[in-house]
Specification:
The chain has about 140 residues and is α+β, with helices and mostly antiparallel strands. It is built from five helices and seven strands. Strands 1-2-3-4-5-7-6 form a seven-stranded mixed beta sheet, sandwiched between helices. The longest helix has 13 residues. Bound molecules: coenzyme A (COA). Coenzyme A binds next to β4, α4 and α5.
Length: about 140
């Protein structure tokens, strides 16, 4: 399993996952209105995204790394619904942290306080809750 870069050929996968109701209900913010809007957004933000690729299953999910300020990046995750609840989240989050920590000592994320499954995973991988506002938890992990 590995993270691969997003290209014009595989970026539709991200749109399908992000706009799926079983994914959207866990996420903050709105999904893109349509594939055209998604294409425009991706055209400007392609470098922030990675797809989790498996030799057997193909595209499994995606993650994003957003540089908030020097030495601090925000990360986010989505597994395709077919691959949720099967333990693949560990791979997705671990690989993304590894990538983000190449250039940052501090990795942060925002998660809805009701998203128990995601929060459990983040605690397991060393994230700690820093604060909570409007039902959204802010969590941080620093370089070992
Ligand atoms: C969040 C996400 C990345 C987690 O990955 P996953 O592979 O589905 O998670 P897992 O199956 O490994 O579950 C993680 C842990 O939560 C537990 N869990 C699963 N469903 C749960 C539930 N409904 N309530 C509480 N715990 C739950 C699992 O048992 C596991 O704990 P364990 O390792 O101690 O057994 C993935 O489900 C996803 O992409 N969800 C939709 C989008 C999303 O929520 N993104 C994160 C936004 S911040």
């Amino acid at each position: 399993m590995k993270l691969i870069r997003v290209t014009k050929e595989n970026m539709e996968f991200i749109y399908r996952v992000r706009s799926h109701p079983e994914v959207d209900k866990y996420l903050l913010g709105e999904p893109p209105a349509n594939l055209r809007e998604h294409g425009k957004f991706m055209g400007q933000n392609m470098g922030r995204f990675r797809i989790l690729w498996d030799d057997v299953y193909g595209n499994i999910g995606y993650s994003q790394i957003t540089q908030l300020k020097p030495n601090m990046a925000e990360i986010g995750f989505c597994l395709h619904p077919d691959f949720q609840g099967r333990g693949f989240g560990v791979n997705l989050v671990e690989l993304t942290i590894k990538e983000a920590k190449k250039q940052n000592d501090f990795i942060v994320l925002f998660v809805h306080e009701n998203n128990t499954r995601a929060i459990k995973l983040y605690h397991k991988l060393g994230f700690k809750k820093v604060s909570s506002e409007n039902e959204v938890d802010f969590m941080i992990s620093s370089k070992d």
